[in-house]
Amino acid sequence: MRDLLAHGPHLTWVRQTIKEGSKGPLVAEFAFLRVTPVRDMLPASRVWLILQRTLSPQPEIQFYLSNAPTTCPPREFIRVSGLRWPVETTLKEGKGQVGMAHNETRTWLAWHHHLNHVLLAQLFLMHLRLHWPERPALTTAQAHLLIAQAIAEEAWPLRNVLAILHYRQRRNYAAYRSHRKRTLKRQQQLSQSQKHKKRSSGSPKSP
After folding, report:
1. Fewer CB atoms inside 10 Å of the end CB: C or N, the chain?
2. Whole-prediction pTM value?
3. The dihedral of CA 198, 199, 200, 204: what is its sign?
């Protein structure tokens, strides 16, 4: 990959917003190229090479290979590149909130039963999060707390739990807006710095 970047064809980098993250928009630069990978010393079928470069003073480059058809639009590759974090978050929440990792089964059928109950419970919590009447939406942990307290209203009245949830939501949203503001400012400063470097490198030098 280093040889390709150093001596390969000229790459056209395009800056795109992947999605809205927890601290503001996730922005990176992308380049797309059709390549022929080598497997077992033989050429394999041609695939897409998707290169993703961070917007930092010392950018890092990640790459992906895709067997998508040649008609696949670049925007679809960019969208898929941002799905890793939601998948990892869903698995982490499943282990922490609904007991995905708490199985002591000995058979394949029992494992399937456990996972079915876990996924149904997580789907219910997700449904509650999305249909929460106020914004921002509940987190999975907050939805779990709300359901647990609604089922067994003993130590804390439900209205007290709702008050705590509203407080946490306000704090989380305020933190998100603060992080987003700093992220946008940092991206703007970095963009201006890169434009200045391009103008400096392209200007003729005095004799």
Report:
1. C
2. 0.62
3. positive
